[in-house]
């Protein structure tokens, strides 16, 4: 391959820059095909970048098809080869490549079609298409050719300097946090606000070219006074050969006291040197739909024009250079001296539906309103005709309260700030929504609140930003493209048919509209996605801590979701809407579904999971506040939820989270027994339900096994498999599926020889999706027997269970949520009766996603509703429909009464 084949989530280089470039010059591309297969790639959504761009993506291969020693060749639509960097993302059990990460750089307006081939030999990369990473003791220097960037290894400068075309466009960038000590008072004296700067603890070069470099920076925010260090951060900086852009992925982990530590501002600040006259300096903000707010620091207009012979004002607004002040006549210089100049500018997006632009001349003068709009794309440029810096924050309006600001534009060094939490907004309040000491109880409000558990300490938040260093004032078209790429990063993808053929991600179907009944089913699947997309907008499911999630249950009487009722509010992955959305994307290739699934993956992987502290490695169950429920479980933090996004995009932050799930969650479940309130710990150190607990752990280990190729992770799974195989009732060997579990040895124990039972969450929290893949990867008769037995007996009649186990037990209830189990058994055995049972159970639900408008004074605005909607039902109905079409689609009952009635 074009990278280290060391077993890891990605390459980790120890070489200096010159050997790296020489190595990759030798290992780039070949015209010798590995197996004659040419894989077609297309831009997701058919949106080709309009400026030169660096991109990264993932591609899967069938087992045994591509070896780690092979390389790759990428060609455009006219057959020209492109620079390419690759690295292993995952391996099959035989050691062949399962997923490979790829990076390239494409020119503006590139065609939509590309081809990728696995090859055996290498040839040199095109000259000038590589970047150089120089590692020194005090700093790392990245030279993309288009941009030179210095990254200090210590101190509070995240970026030391940025140069483009010999011009310094930034003298440094730093992370900023404004901490308010306690909640604001209604009146009187207000809490003290202290300034913190990000301080670097560690810098790691994760990739060093030749096409892409990745630098990981870890640290804490340090008070300016030096009295406190808190709020850990992880920032990754991405560079591409020849590019003037830097992608920044910024993550914070809240480790404060939610009763006292109120973040008043959180952002990143860049120093922008300004050498030109005030009237040659410019500030630009992105509005919405490709519109820009653009003004010079000193507009050349007043009561009289600067010149009647030449329209300098018009030239100025186009970003052209205006001559030096000394070249003007005395009366013209008088005007330049007296016309107002403006030092500070800001765009505030304090809600999802409106932004304002303000400016002022200096810090002792009033702000004046300068513009307004609805939804800003979150981009700002500050600079002069000799160059400057643009910064764009992704999902700016969706993640309000946010702002972008330019300060001190009249000085020699302006500050360009991107605020993830705007200082103009109320302080960030992480407290729980209610303070009654006994909580609300599962029986009263479906809310498991326990003292000390409704804490935000340990949750995280990730924000993406795109920096663009320019040697001049960028055109409107360029800035709009920067904003578009920041908000909708270009991604190359393979077709759904290819993903299905590999296969990738287990059991799922391609769309099938071959019969009237299947046409109806596919229409309902489409309507379900469309309805939730509509609900995100109707209900304004936006905000810094909320964007990406959806609500759990609907209140038809109030015509709102049950946003204020305990566990009925934010969903927090309950019954796997994440998986429903990802499988919906896989089978369709639709960009809109991808973006929704991506946002949910970012949210649930960061906000709903603890990354440090007492609950590290666990997630919080659904609640009014994402971290409010006392139930902290592995199922919410499981790696299964991140695999789609990671493998399709190579996102390193998601890779971190999946690795943490494998390494930390097992320890966490031992320290916080998920069944601690109902089972005695005297005999076993902890307990686990076969599902969702053990299956979630198995999914974590499976993911790490494929990412590293290290069989120690497989061994952990097999320890559990052997434990279950020795129990009399297989996966049913426990009351409520509860078993003893030893986190040190990974063994499971039956609590009592007579224990038999089930947990419906074994099926509903990603268990089948893990088991489908695990069965093929393990290829172990013991596990295959156990899983097939489970799919055959779950929801089966008591006489079937008695015939198997000698006990007349009901092990689960039949129904549409569980219909994929008999469907799977039918697929494995070819028995038609099980296929018929699967479809009959699925079609019992009568689920439909037909909307109707409720237009009344009883709601703030007209809303579209679906009768009986719940996210639990939507997610599981969608997953079952998608899987049944794959497993038993040929047995779809066209004459079923529910199908006939629906049509």
Q: What is the radius of gyration?
A: 29 Å
Which band does the percent of strand residues land in? 25-35%
Largest sheet: 16 strands, antiparallel
Number of strands: 37
What's the helix count?
22
Q: What structural class do you assign from the helix and strand content? A: alpha+beta
Chain-averaged pLDDT: 93
Question: How helical, in percent, are the residues?
Answer: 25-40%
Strand order of the largest sheet: 19-18-23-24-27-16-15-14-13-12-17-26-25-20-21-22
Task: Tell the overall outline.
Answer: globular
| Spatial separation of the terminal alpha carbons | 53 Å
Task: Give the uncertain stretches in residue-range form.
Answer: 2-35
Walk me through what this model shows:
The protein has 903 residues and is of the alpha+beta class. Among the domains are: 17-119, no CATH class; 132-272, no CATH class; 275-426 and 468-487, no CATH class; 638-802, no CATH class. The chain has 22 helices and 37 strands. It has a 16-stranded antiparallel sheet with strand order 19-18-23-24-27-16-15-14-13-12-17-26-25-20-21-22, with helices on one face. This is Tat pathway signal sequence domain protein. Residues 38-118 form the PcRGLX/YetA-like N-terminal RIFT barrel domain. Residues 132-483 form the PcRGLX/YetA-like central beta-sandwich domain. Residues 489-891 form the PcRGLX/YetA-like C-terminal alpha/alpha toroid domain.
């Amino acid at each position: 391959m074009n990278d280290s084949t060391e077993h890891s989530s990605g390459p980790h280089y120890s070489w200096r820059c010159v050997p790296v470039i020489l190595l990759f010059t030798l290992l780039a591309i070949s015209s010798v095909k590995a197996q004659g297969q040419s894989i077609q790639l297309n831009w997701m959504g058919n949106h080709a970048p309009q400026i030169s761009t660096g991109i990264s993506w993932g591609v899967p291969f069938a087992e045994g098809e591509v070896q780690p020693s092979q390389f790759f060749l990428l060609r455009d639509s006219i057959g020209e080869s492109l620079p390419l960097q690759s690295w292993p993302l995952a391996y099959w059990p035989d050691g062949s490549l399962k997923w490979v990460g790829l990076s390239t750089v494409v020119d503006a307006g590139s065609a939509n079609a590309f081809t990728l081939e696995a090859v055996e030999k290498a040839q040199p990369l095109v000259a000038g298409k590589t970047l150089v990473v120089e590692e020194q003791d005090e700093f790392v220097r990245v030279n993309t050719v288009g941009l030179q960037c210095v990254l200090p290894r210590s101190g509070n400068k995240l970026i030391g300097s940025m140069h483009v075309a010999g011009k310094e466009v930034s003298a440094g960038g730093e992370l900023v946090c404004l901490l308010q000590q306690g909640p604001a008072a209604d009146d009187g004296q207000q809490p003290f606000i202290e300034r913190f700067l990000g301080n670097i603890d560690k810098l790691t070069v994760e990739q060093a070219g030749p096409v892409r470099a990745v630098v990981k920076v870890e640290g804490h925010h340090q008070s300016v006074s030096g009295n406190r260090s808190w709020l850990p951060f992880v920032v990754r900086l991405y560079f591409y050969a020849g590019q003037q852009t830097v992608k920044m992925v910024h993550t914070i982990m809240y480790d404060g006291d939610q009763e006292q530590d109120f973040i008043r501002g959180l952002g990143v600040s860049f120093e922008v040197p300004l050498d030109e006259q005030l009237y040659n300096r410019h500030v630009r903000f992105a509005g919405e739909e490709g519109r820009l707010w653009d003004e010079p620091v000193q507009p050349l207009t007043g009561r009289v024009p600067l010149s009647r012979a030449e329209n300098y004002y018009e030239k100025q607004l186009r970003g052209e250079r205006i001559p030096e002040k000394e070249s003007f006549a005395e009366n013209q210089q008088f005007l330049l001296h007296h016309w107002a100049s403006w030092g500070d500018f800001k765009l505030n997006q304090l809600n999802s539906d409106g932004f304002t632009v303000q400016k002022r001349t200096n810090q002792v003068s009033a702000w004046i309103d300068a513009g307004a709009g609805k939804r800003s794309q979150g981009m700002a440029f500050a600079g002069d005709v000799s160059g400057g810096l643009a910064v764009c924050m992704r999902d700016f309006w969706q993640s309000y309260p946010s702002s972008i600001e330019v300060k001190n534009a009249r000085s020699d060094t302006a500050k360009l700030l991107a605020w993830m939490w705007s200082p103009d907004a109320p302080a960030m309040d992480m407290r729980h929504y209610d303070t009654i000491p006994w909580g609300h109880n599962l029986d009263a409000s479906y809310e498991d609140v326990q003292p000390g558990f409704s804490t935000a300490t340990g949750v995280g938040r990730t924000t993406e930003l795109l920096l663009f260093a320019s040697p001049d004032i960028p055109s409107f078209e360029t800035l709009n493209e920067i904003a578009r790429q920041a908000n909708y990063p270009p991604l190359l993808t393979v077709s759904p048919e290819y993903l299905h053929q590999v296969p990738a991600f287990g059991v799922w179907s391609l769309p099938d509209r071959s019969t009237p009944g299947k046409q109806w089913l596919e229409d309902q699947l489409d309507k379900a996605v469309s309805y939730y997309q509509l609900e995100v907008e109707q209900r304004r499911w936006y905000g810094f801590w909320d964007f990406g999630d959806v609500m759990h249950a609907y209140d038809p009487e109030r015509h709102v979701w049950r946003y204020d009722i305990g566990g009925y509010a934010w969903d927090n992955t309950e019954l796997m809407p994440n998986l429903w959305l990802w499988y919906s994307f896989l089978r369709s290739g639709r960009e809109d579904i991808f973006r929704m699934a991506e946002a949910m993956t970012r949210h649930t992987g960061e906000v709903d999971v603890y990354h440090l502290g007492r609950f590290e490695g666990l997630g919080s169950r659904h609640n009014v506040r994402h971290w409010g429920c006392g139930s902290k479980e592995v199922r919410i933090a499981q790696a299964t939820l991140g695999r789609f996004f990671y493998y399709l995009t190579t996102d390193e932050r998601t890779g971190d989270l999946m690795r943490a799930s494998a390494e930390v969650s097992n320890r966490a479940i031992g320290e916080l027994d998920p069944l601690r309130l109902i089972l005695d710990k005297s005999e076993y150190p902890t307990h686990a339900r076969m599902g969702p607990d053990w299956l979630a752990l198995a999914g974590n280990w499976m993911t790490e096994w494929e990412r590293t190729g290290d069989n120690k992770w497989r061994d952990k799974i097999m320890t559990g498999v052997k434990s279950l195989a020795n129990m009399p009732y297989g996966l049913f060997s426990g009351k409520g599926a509860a078993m003893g579990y030893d986190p040190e040895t990974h063994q499971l124990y039956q609590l009592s020889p007579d224990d038999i039972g089930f947990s419906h969450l074994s099926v509903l929290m990603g268990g089948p999706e893990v088991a489908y893949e695990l069965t093929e990867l393990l290829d172990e008769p013991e596990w295959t027997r156990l899983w097939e037995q489970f799919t055959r007996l779950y929801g089966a009649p008591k006489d079937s269970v008695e015939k198997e186990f000698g006990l007349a037990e009901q092990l689960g209830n039949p129904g549409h949520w569980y219909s994929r189990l008999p469907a799977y058994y039918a697929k494995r055995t070819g028995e038609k009766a099980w296929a018929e049972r699967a479809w009959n159970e699925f079609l019992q639900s009568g689920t439909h996603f037909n909307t109707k408008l409720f237009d009344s004074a009883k709601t703030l605005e007209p809303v579209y509703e679906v009768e009986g909607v719940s996210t639990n039902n939507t997610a599981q109905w969608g997953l079952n429909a998608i899987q049944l079409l794959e497993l038993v689609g040929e047995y779809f009952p066209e004459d079923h009464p529910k199908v006939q009635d629906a049509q």
